[in-house]
Amino acid sequence: MATDHAKQILEGSPRSVARLITWLEDEDRRAYKCMEKLYPHTGKAYIIGITGSPGAGKSTLTDKLVRAIRKQGHTVGIIAVDPSSPFTGGAILGDRVRMSELNEDPEVYIRSMATRGFLGGMAKATSDVVKVFDAFGKDIVIIETVGVGQDEVDIIGIADTTCLVLVPGLGDGIQSMKAGVMEIADVFVINKADRPGADQLWAEVTYRVEQDTHIKQQRDWTPMVTKTVAVDDEGIDGLWEAIQRHRQYLEESGKLTEKRRIRTSQETLRMIHNELFRLVREQLESSGQLDRYVQQILDHRRDPYSVMREIVNNWLSIPKEQKEAS
Amino acid sequence: MATDHAKQILEGSPRSVARLITWLEDEDRRAYKCMEKLYPHTGKAYIIGITGSPGAGKSTLTDKLVRAIRKQGHTVGIIAVDPSSPFTGGAILGDRVRMSELNEDPEVYIRSMATRGFLGGMAKATSDVVKVFDAFGKDIVIIETVGVGQDEVDIIGIADTTCLVLVPGLGDGIQSMKAGVMEIADVFVINKADRPGADQLWAEVTYRVEQDTHIKQQRDWTPMVTKTVAVDDEGIDGLWEAIQRHRQYLEESGKLTEKRRIRTSQETLRMIHNELFRLVREQLESSGQLDRYVQQILDHRRDPYSVMREIVNNWLSIPKEQKEAS
Asked: Are A9 and A17 in contact (CB under 8 A)?
């Protein structure tokens, strides 16, 4: 059954893609079998991250960028990661509505994902969906996310090229937030560049990119700074050009291989960890053990630290001998 | 050694508090022993969360609120969680500088924490520091954090009373982000209430609070909406009054007990989660196994899903019999 879905995805069924992603989001075990089958068919897609604060116009920019990419004949998968309410689980609807025009293009696949739950699951879910799109044959995968918070930094770490969207006039506090995210940008986009203050922002960013010793020390690539007015479709070709130049740099310098090695390492760790925790949690909750421990802790008969050690010591046994000898 | 620190913390040594928090941040194993000793002395502090977007004036508000609380003789611990760069680990300095005047009061303990690392570690670190302050004898613990991202939602979930700080004129995109955070606020603070648009924002929030069926269905408490001009020390008593009324509601309705039960459950799970990750990562990295697996995956000789299953099957053994019979 799960294997059938993998086959159908490789044969181009969008319905099977949707089903698999739902399984991944629900942590349905059937997803694993399917992902195993798909894995050998991954590694071809190029991954672009688009990040920036709310109101920066990321959705419109993504929309126009995708149209430009489509004109060159490439197929595209889009993952829109939305911050959501911990209560409603709802996502902000604006993005979906605006992007829905692209839905009519069969070579573009769009998936919105609500940030849900607990404990950094979003980065794992996003990297799984990237692999699904990759196996599904999409040449380019775009991840659009809000650029604040550790979760988002983890998500954007999946991308080969990260674009940070800034706009003039969003106030000092907001721009200073960006200080934390500046270092992860390969391409800066000054969007809404027809607004007052755009030239100044462009100058500031350019200055920082060229002066910032942190950015310099980290890498040979000097981030490019582009200007767009996404709503009027201006500057989009320049942005696409900048992304392609960064890609060329990564490929020619060998950094793409290095980047993907690190990513595979992190993803593998993350998968092992998530699966271990899922199993432990399931057992603790279904057996009523967790409730009993919590009652003991609340009664001050135990403390959570010793509970943690007891469970980890009793349940996890790391083999002394390594079977692996590759 | 670690036990000595616990004793010194209980006897009131700020130096030992600083040492322990550093251990916690570094995931130094000595922290656990210490936390075990402190745990029986926790559960007395009341925890206030202050959240809102950058530029909302949270730091100034916290500063003035703490002064008001101190006038009534209560002792205070402050945890300032700053978004930071994944590369530099640096925090935004403004907050620390502004709050430093409070540093002269020996009954106020301030700790800035940079959001670092991987996999939701901040919420765990923050809840540990809350416990340290609690055992250290602080009556009130204030957590100040930026109100966006899943990480921050997790952090603010630690608080008994959550205050969401809004300001007039921060633009639509930013206010709409708040949609996700609106539901977690027990008290709304319209700060910079002398600015144009403050009355309208107050009316909007009040309307939403009273109309929002989600908020209504979730709980009996109707969030209070207060106005402040923190920089001029206006409205602070009203805010403190609102917080105390929420506390009274929680205590009288039994919701505080319920809230803390859920929190203990989540914290225990989170501790297990973090410890599992630490052990797995340590073993896989130090043995060179991870590198070997990654090479096999990159060569497409294996896939990460089967690697995950192999490790989980070999390492995890959940006892069939439950020893626990409380």
From this structure: yes
Closest CB from A84, A273, A300 relative to B40: A300
Task: Kindly give the confidence (pLDDT) of every residue in chain B, 326 residues in length, as a single tens digit, with 9 standing for 90 and above.
Answer: 666 889 999 999 999 999 998 888 777 888 888 998 999 899 999 999 998 877 788 888 999 999 999 999 999 999 988 554 333 233 344 444 445 567 678 889 888 776 554 344 677 788 899 999 999 999 999 998 876 555 666 777 789 999 989 888 765 444 544 455 677 789 999 999 999 989 988 988 888 888 766 656 566 888 999 999 999 999 999 999 999 999 999 999 999 999 999 989 988 998 888 888 888 888 899 999 999 999 999 988 899 888 998 999 989 988 765 544 44
Closest CA relative to residue B143, chosen from B263, B12, B290, B318? B263
Find the residue in B nearest to A271 (Cα): B308
Nearest chain B alpha carbon to A290: B265
Q: Which residues of A touch B148 (CB under 8 A)?
A: 54, 83, 146, 148-149
Nearest CA-CA partner of B222 in B238, B237, B206, B235 = B206
Residues of A in contact with B153 (CB under 8 A): 86
Place of tokens 């609120």: B65
Is A88 close to B214, i.e. CB distance below 8 A?
yes
pLDDT of residue A84: 42
Nearest to B34 by CA among B1, B6, B11: B6
* B182 vs B208: CA distance, rounded Å: 9
> Residue B119 and residue A270: Cβ atoms within 8 Å?
yes
CB-closest option in B35, B36, B183 to A85: B183
Map residue B114 onto helix, strand or coil: strand
- Beta-bridge partner residues of A91: A84
A154 neighbourhood in chain B, CB within 8 Å = 118-119
The C-alpha of A25 sits at a distance from chain B's nearest C-alpha, in angstroms, of: 16
Q: Do the Cβ atoms of B308 and A55 come within 8 Å? A: no
For A294, the closest of B264, B308, B315 (CB atoms) is B264
- CA A196-B202-A92 angle, to 5 degrees, is 65
On whether any CB of chain B is under 8 Å from the CB of A3, the answer is no
Q: Which of A267, A295, A315 sits opposite B304 (nearest CB)?
A: A267
Partner-chain contact B153 A86, CB within 8 Å: yes
Tokens of B98: 């502004």
Contact state of A261 with B294 under an 8 Å Cβ cutoff? yes
Q: Check if A22 contacts B (Cβ < 8 Å).
A: no
- Does residue B94 contact residue A175 with C-beta atoms inside 8 Å? no
Assign 3-class secondary structure to chain A: CHHHHHHHHHCCCHHHHHHHHHHHHCCCCHHHHHHHHHHHHCCCCEEEEEEECCCCCHHHHHHHHHHHHHHCCCCEEEEEEECECCCCCCECCHHHHHHHHHHHCCCEEEEEEECCCCCCHHHHHHHHHHHHHHHCCCCEEEEEEECCCHHHHHHHCCCCEEEEEECCCCCHHHHHHCHHHHCCCCEEEECCCCCCCHHHHHHHHHHHHHHCHHHHHHCCCCCEEEECEHHHCECHHHHHHHHHHHHHHHHHHCHHHHHHHHHHHHHHHHHHHHHHHHHHHHHHHHCCHHHHHHHHHHCCCCCHHHHHHHHHHHHECCCCCCCCCC
A321 to chain B: closest CA residue: B287
